[in-house]
Specification:
The chain is an alpha/beta fold. Helix content is 38%, strand content 13%. It is built from 28 helices and 23 strands.
């Protein structure tokens, strides 16, 4: 590879994709890209990467960076991100010393402190360049339903108790800020929501109004169809939905849509024909797609613990999308305010306060520790001393920092005891774990326990989803079960967390959560309405071809497109360890597609099963969906016709019957007789 190279890193794929398009138009084949979704021309002189890919390259393939002279970290304030911030810090710390760093951000008030740390850790001169002049001035207004826009100073009198009791109304202003923005022609507009679901709902609602003329509609649909053909997604349900929305001049953008669909939305927005784009906050991370107006659905967001007012830094980052340089003389930022619970002090802090300083989130994962141990040997134990976190601490705090150094030592001790590292270096277990970034211990433990080799594709999908899935407080999932695999996976992680508790580590390995099993099974076999009840209850039988009720070749032809299912009885192991049965009777019994459970299965039933109350109830669901207890007493576990060995078994020594079980066998395996072993309870408890 000849010549010198430059690497540009971005925090999100949307920004990486846009920079790739921008640079590609100017420099052609000299530009490449590497993200989790796509790799194009990776040997190019100018290479676009996500920051995670760059960090991984440092540890896994440092020779690829030998010809790199500069690395640009865009949105470097991401150092303060609780989950991903450590990636930026590790990249700055461990990038080869010959590489010079350019760090960009619009929201770092403690920039001088960051520069001093970089001078110390990189042993190189660092210059700070600050630009305070904004090319397009912004107006920050607050929108009160039925009362219209107000400046902050005007809100002080409005938000008093007496004012709240008085009903504010001005017939000259619509109730919703979007209607005002459309009426005043402050388009195109970016509408920020903090919920993916709200993005889609508001977009669908706004699409009832046509925002395009005939020429604009023709042009945007021609471009949409061209992009859909180019990316080979034409005719897909999700594509058709976006096309219908685009024809009205509205679209949505969030992390939950397909990467190709996000690319199409971004390309369409740059044309100016998308008049209103509903997006989550990730769209604001440096994506150079400004609008004339930015609207906040609310200034309060869920921070993982509670709903609080957003940070000033985040607000400024998102509000900065308003005002197109060279096109707009001014930009407008509108924040919807609810008079019932608005706080003047909080609104003032968010919109006019100083940005919060960037704090270190340095947290060496097991994977990073293994990579550092491979490079530094015993030097890994002093890694924290070079971190930005250590640099930001006062002398008093550093005296109490010994426990943070001990965290590294304790984690390394666990890695040694568990066979990941030794005095000679990295073991095969450690070699696998160091190449996996995120859930590396779970993946390694599952692999060496033989789970990957013994599981079907469907079970593997369920296992991977369970590894990363974290249920929220209000989630009311009703998962199908794979009892043997679940117990083994949970036991493997529990064994590791016991060592972590013994070492007094605060952050423990995440336990697998199989709450989305039903969704995984439904997605694997097609629409839920085409899946019969017995299929849902016995995923191993489906994957191995031993279930007579598979939707693709249902012997009783009950699994039809109407959602009707044959009469069957199947077993379910609930979250609380309760094993119950439900029966569907008659040709008209239906599966509830929306909730992934039988028709008539209520929340109270699921709640009772999770809490363990009513353990003896056997719920019989008749055609009408009513439930009644069929018998009392402890319900035994199902009798399983196959079991998973505790250690890897050669494929040649395992045989699976291709013939479907008889009706009596199905009844026996579904109904089950005999008491559930007490040893199962701890591993299945929530």
């Amino acid at each position: 590879m000849g010549g010198r190279r430059i690497v540009y890193t971005a925090p999100i794929k949307a920004l990486s994709n846009q920079k790739f398009r921008d640079f590609r138009e100017e420099h052609g084949e000299e530009v490449g890209i590497m993200t989790g979704d796509v790799t194009i021309n990776p040997e190019a002189p100018l290479l676009i990467m996500t920051t995670e890919v760059f960090r991984n390259t440092i540890f896994e393939s440092p020779e690829r960076l030998e010809a790199v002279d500069f690395v640009v970290f865009d949105e470097v304030h991401y150092l303060d991100d609780e989950e991903r911030g450590t990636v930026w810090e590790e990249s700055i710390l461990y990038a080869p010393t010959h590489i010079r760093i350019v760090a960009l951000s619009a929201t770092i008030p403690n920039i001088e402190q960051l520069a001093r740390w970089m001078r110390k850790t990189r042993k190189a001169e660092v210059d700070v360049v600050v630009e305070e002049q904004r090319p397009v001035p912004l107006h920050h207004w607050f929108y009160i339903p039925d009362a219209g826009p107000r400046e902050l100073r005007q809100l002080k009198g409005v938000l008093t108790k007496a004012a709240r009791r008085k009903r504010f109304r001005n017939d000259n202003f619509p109730r919703h800020p979007l209607a005002y923005v459309v009426r005043e022609n402050w388009l195109p507009a970016l509408y920020f929501c903090f919920s993916r679901r709200d993005c889609e709902i508001l977009c669908e609602r706004q699409a009832r109004t046509d925002h395009l003329d005939a020429r604009e509609r023709r042009e945007i649909l021609e471009l949409f169809d061209d992009l859909a053909r180019r990316y080979e997604v034409a005719g897909q349900p999700g594509t058709d939905r976006l096309r219908n929305l685009a024809s009205k001049g509205t679209l949505y953008h969030h992390a939950g849509i397909l990467p190709i669909h996000k690319e199409i939305v971004e390309r369409l927005f740059t044309t100016g024909h998308v008049k209103i784009l509903f997006a989550t906050e990730t769209f604001a991370l440096g994506v150079n797609m400004p609008a004339k107006c930015v609207i906040f659905d609310t200034l309060r967001k869920f921070d993982g613990v509670d709903v609080r007012y957003m940070k000033t830094r985040d607000y400024m980052q998102m509000a900065g999308r308003a005002g197109r340089q060279g096109m707009d003389e001014e930009g407008l930022v509108l924040s919807r305010v609810d008079l019932e619970d608005a706080s003047f002090a909080a609104l003032q802090r968010v919109t006019e306060g100083a940005s919060e300083p960037v704090l270190s989130r340095f947290n060496l994962s097991y994977s990073t520790l293994l990579n550092l141990y491979l490079r530094l040997g015993e030097g890994v134990y002093s890694a924290y001393d070079r971190s930005f976190a250590h640099f930001q601490e006062t002398k008093a705090q550093r005296k109490s920092a010994a426990p943070r150094n001990r965290i590294i030592a304790r984690r390394m001790k666990i890695l040694r005891e568990r066979g990941y590292a030794s005095a000679e270096g990295i073991t095969p277990r450690g070699e696998l774990a160091r190449k996996v970034n995120g859930y590396e211990i779970q993946v390694t433990e599952f692999y060496f326990a033989g789970l990957f080799e013994r599981a079907s594709l469907l079970e593997l999908a369920a296992l991977f989803v369970a590894t990363v899935y974290e249920a929220r407080k209000m989630d009311d999932t009703d998962p199908a079960r794979i009892p043997v695999m679940e117990r083994e996976a949970i036991a493997l992680v529990a064994d590791w967390t016991r060592d972590e508790r013994r070492a007094e580590l605060a952050e423990l390995l995440k336990r697998p959560d199989f709450g989305l099993n039903s969704v995984v099974f439904a997605g694997r076999r097609g629409p839920p309405s085409r899946i019969c009840a017995a299929s849902r209850a016995s995923p191993r039988a489906i994957s191995s071809g031993r279930c007579a009720w598979r939707s693709s070749s249902c012997a009783s032809s009950g699994a039809s497109s109407t959602g009707r299912i044959p009469s069957a009885t199947s077993s379910r192991r609930r979250r609380g360890g309760w094993t119950g049965t439900w029966s569907t009777r008659g040709a008209n019994s239906n599966w509830d597609d929306a909730n992934l459970r039988p028709t008539g299965y209520t929340r109270s039933m699921a709640r009772r099963k999770r809490t363990g109350k009513g353990k003896g109830d056997r719920l019989s669901l008749d055609t009408g969906g009513s439930a009644s207890p069929a018998r009392t007493g402890p319900t035994p576990p199902p009798t399983r016709t196959s079991s998973m060995p505790s250690s890897p078994t050669p494929a040649s020594s395992r045989t699976r019957s291709s013939a479907p079980p008889s009706a009596s066998a199905r009844s026996a395996s579904c109904s089950g007789r005999g008491r559930r072993p007490s040893s199962i309870a701890p591993s299945m408890s929530r």
